[in-house]
Amino acid sequence: MPKNQPHPSEPKRARVVAQPAPAAAVPAARTKVEPAAGLAGLGALRDALKGDAERRERERTAAAAKQREASADADLFRREIGAVAPVAAPPRATQPRNPPPPLPVQTRLDEEAVLHEAISDEFDPEVLLDTDETLSYCRPGVSQEVVRKLRRGDWIVQAQIDLHGMRREQAREALAEFIRESVKRGLRCLRVIHGKGLGSIGKEPVLKGKVRAWLVQKSEVIAFCQARPHDGGAGAVVVLLQPGASPAHAKS
């Protein structure tokens, strides 16, 4: 019996041939799908780029056409107008801005008030003076006791002015200014030295009478009388101003 031949009495065995295992289905399918998806994405990108390029080209063409149209309009306008020359305009003059001078409003009001209240030389105080050896004055409505106290020296003299030797106009202005300043300072009792007139022509006390006339015309003055001998006697008067005098009540 030949070698390797089965014995007739042995059963036949099936020959088993080893076959390689088939590849998995999923990986094979994946290798087929992925290239298709990539190609589709590239196609969409290509289409988008192409559309963008076409849009830019349309915009460039439209801008060029608009520029050509504007240039043609400008050429037509220049042909219709012809040659022109610029108008020779003179240079503008620069005007300096100088502020207006300040107006002394308060000074003007003060001056007007002074003129309004100016005391006159033509006023005769004899109708208002109490004629005695001292010639005193008391404003209507003020008690005579005020004059008696003024004579006794119940009020202390707080300020004085010496008009002796001044001319009449100078003395009048100086007296008016003295009273205004005293009222502003809140003073009550003043002394006005006018002299006895011994040095004037004819030895007449001209300034003495004028001072009394000026004082009567001042609304701030409520009383005055001749000074006591040791305060000047017949050469001065003691003046009492209205009470409560302050800068708010003073007249310029």
From TrEMBL:
It holds the Pfam family Smr. It comes from the Bacteria. Residues 16-31 have a biased composition (Low complexity). Residues 161-242 form the Smr domain. InterPro entries: Smr_dom, Smr_dom_sf. Residues 1-31, 51-73 are annotated as: Disordered. This is DNA mismatch repair protein MutS. The lineage of its organism: Bacteria, Pseudomonadati, Pseudomonadota, Betaproteobacteria, Burkholderiales.
